[in-house]
Design a protein that fits this description.
Layout (H helix, E strand, L loop, with lengths): L1 E10 L3 H12 L4 E4 L7 H5 L4 E2 L4 H5 L6 H12 L5 H21 L4 E3 L19 E4 L2 E2 L18 E2 L3 E2 L5 H5 L5 H20 L5 E2 L1 H15 L3 E3 L4 E7 L2 E9 L2 E13 L8 H7 L1 H4 L5 E2 L8 H8 L4 E2 L6 E10 L5 E5 L9 E4 L13 H11 L8 E6 H7 L12 H6 L2 E4 L2 H8 L3 H15 L13 H5 L19 E13 L2 E2 L6 E3 L5 E7 L19 H20 L1 H4 L4
Parallel strand pairs: 1-2, 1-13, 2-10, 13-24, 14-21
Antiparallel strand pairs: 3-5, 4-5, 6-9, 7-8, 11-12, 12-13, 15-22, 16-17, 16-21, 18-19, 19-21, 20-21, 23-24
Bound molecules: flavin-adenine dinucleotide (FAD).
């Protein structure tokens, strides 16, 4: 068998793996990143790339009134006894400095999203904005020949066959038909995209998680990190009880890697693994439908390798995964691709109903809160599904799901059956297979109060987070308007996820722990292979990529310290 040697072997090239790789390399370690897929970036490259890091230097510079104590109170209010206090403390204490280190030492830059509230901002310690940051756009051409190895974004979230639209660009797209400035901004982006397509298979102005993965990877390559694609870690190697390397399956056959400082598992959890989903997701165990928006390669390899190495699994989570409702967008080859519904539910003139035509939640609440309500609303049904319904005014302004607002075209989505349209609410119900009388009654009741901007039943628009996702400028309630102008439209939603929360037990140094709390020497775990330290809750935007970066970085620093001063750290427990 071929043998290679390094200091640190990292399984997985998402946020956790890349943050660890660049940190370790810049601390003098020889690093190999083994990636199972043909492309690097993992779920991170699909994501919006937001990180939740309270008290960042950007927040301080912007004068945000916040503090680590308030953030800790918020986490306690959100997670209760499930909060891993030691990791939470480490995250809040070290997160801002680690983010600053990453910015000072890599190509990755973050912009504060100042008005982005926590998802439950009225809870103790909750913030109305200033804890979530997004990656600055990144020029993919800087990756040179490696650009083709970067996982493209989810196709359903791009436009014109491969152009990324960043969260920061969305307001300009929404108002491009009403504002010259917005039209010019969009025009510049489209012109750049057209030029790109002369020489590249997709746009090279990267935003969101694609920008994050590209920027970190470029820095890792420059620091000498070796990336092996199509090379899943198959099994760990031991020197007595200490993990000292692994065997990879590569296109040239198995390769044994000796890793002096150990192995970091950063394989992104198990969102794409049917067996593990059935083990941990209640509705899947009950035989019901589920569709993950994460990549197909995230099948729990790290989770299984860790379990086999004796690492404890933290099963008791509030929710086993980070949920999101998704719609299934038909593709030309007859398959479907998921579109995650993060934002559109919050707009005015949009409601969600079950097959009885009943609303079941404030649609503007977070995607993670929406799915359990959807599952409950469908109790006793043979599948979990609901429909987002809107009127012509709403769809003209914001589109619906993957169906874009003008000048984008609805026709392809109507033809494919993704988007349903009818002249009346009753006819729309029939198209959707929804109880018509139930839907008509729901819309009539909703409209009566919506003309005053009120939603007495579910309180849509009732807090800063909900209003953040609403229709900008609409008063008195940006989330509420009557559905009154035909034709009416619908898109079908099913339950999905963007990654898993159940995972392996680690300490605040990212070291793997067994059921007794003892360190499994030589084994680090970060990203979604590690259990959510927030106990399976979803406090705000960026609560998985933030910890992936921070605990990936911490793992690498610990490994570097072990190599540089072995006598001080090798027997730490
Ligand atoms: C559409 C979407 C939007 C999202 N937006 C956000 C957001 O804005 N903020 C946020 O915090 N979270 C967001 N998420 C969730 C977030 O993307 C993930 O939680 C996060 O990226 C996980 O990072 P990771 O490093 O653990 O795993 P990943 O990024 O998934 O990387 C894991 C890598 O490991 C590889 N791998 C798997 N098995 C092996 C093996 N045996 N050997 C080697 N490699 C292996 C995989 O191929 C993959 O490349 C979003 C997710 C989606 C789908």
């Amino acid at each position: 068998m071929t043998r290679l040697a390094c200091d640190l072997l990292i399984a997985g090239s998402g946020a956790a793996g890349l943050a660890a790789a660049v940190t370790a390399a810049l601390h003098g370690l020889d690093v190999i990143v083994a990636e199972k897929a043909a492309v690097f970036g993992g779920t991170t490259a699909y994501s919006a790339g937001i990180v939740w890091v309270p008290d960042s230097q950007q927040a301080r510079a912007a004068g945000v009134q916040d503090g680590r104590d308030a953030a800790l109170r918020y986490l306690i209010a959100e997670c209760g006894n499930r909060l891993d206090r030691a990791k939470a403390q480490a995250y809040l204490d070290d997160g801002p400095e680690i983010l600053a280190w990453i910015e000072a030492n890599t190509h990755l830059r973050f912009n504060l999203a100042p008005g982005w509230p926590d998802y439950h901002p009225t809870k103790d310690g909750g913030s109305a904005g200033g804890r979530s940051l997004g990656p600055a756009p990144f020029d993919g051409r800087r990756l040179g020949a490696r650009f083709k190895d970067l996982r493209p974004p989810l196709a359903t979230t791009t436009i014109l066959g491969g152009m990324m639209v960043g969260r920061e660009d969305l307001p300009q797209f929404y108002s491009m038909t009403r504002s010259t400035r917005s039209a010019l901004h969009v025009g510049r982006l489209v012109a750049r995209y057209a030029r790109d397509r002369l020489s590249h298979p997709r746009g090279t102005r990267l935003s969101n998680g694609n920008a994050l993965a590209a920027a970190l990877a470029l820095s890792a390559f420059e620091a000498g990190v070796r990336l092996l694609l199509n090379s899943p870690v198959r099994e760990l190697a031991y020197d007595s009880a200490r993990v000292c390397g692994a065997v990879l399956d590569t296109p040239d056959g198995p390769v044994a890697i000796d890793a002096r400082a150990g192995v970091l598992l950063a394989c992104g959890g198990f969102p794409a693994d049917p067996a593990l989903r059935a083990r941990f997701y209640g509705h899947v165990a009950a035989g019901l439908n589920h569709c993950s928006a994460a990549p197909a390669e995230n099948t729990g390899d790290g989770f299984r390798l860790g379990e086999a190495a004796g690492v404890a699994v933290v099963e008791a989570q509030d929710q086993p995964a980070a949920w999101t409702p998704v719609s299934l967008v038909p593709q030309p080859d007859g398959t479907t691709l998921p579109f995650p519904h993060f934002i559109d539910r919050g707009k005015a003139g949009v409601i969600a109903v079950d097959r009885r035509g009943r609303r079941f939640i404030s649609e503007a609440l977070s995607y993670h809160d929406f799915v359990p309500a959807m599952i409950e609303a469908c109790a006793g049904d043979d599948e979990i599904a609901c429909h987002l319904i809107c009127d012509a005014t709403a769809i003209r302004r914001y589109g619906l799901g993957a169906a874009p607002p003008p000048p984008g075209r609805l026709t392809p989505h109507l033809r494919s059956g993704y988007l349903l349209r009818a002249d009346s609410i009753g006819e729309l119900a029939a198209c959707c297979g929804i109880d018509a009388a139930g839907l008509e009654a729901t819309v009539a009741r909703f409209n009566a109060a919506a003309t005053r901007g009120e939603d007495p039943v579910f309180g849509k628009g009732g807090d800063a987070y909900q209003r953040f996702n609403g229709s900008t400028g609409l008063t008195p309630n940006p989330c509420v308007a009557p559905l009154q102008t035909g034709p009416f439209y619908a898109v079908r939603l099913v339950p999905g996820d963007i990654g898993t929360f159940v995972g392996l037990k680690t300490d605040a140094q990212s070291r793997a722990l067994d059921a007794q709390g003892a360190v499994v020497e030589g084994l680090y775990i970060a990203g979604n292979d590690a259990a959510s330290f927030m106990g399976g809750t979803y406090p705000g935007a960026g609560i998985t990529i933030g910890p992936a970066l921070v605990f990936g970085h911490i793992a690498a620093r610990h490994a570097a310290a072990a190599v540089n001063q072995p006598q001080e750290t090798s027997h730490a427990r």
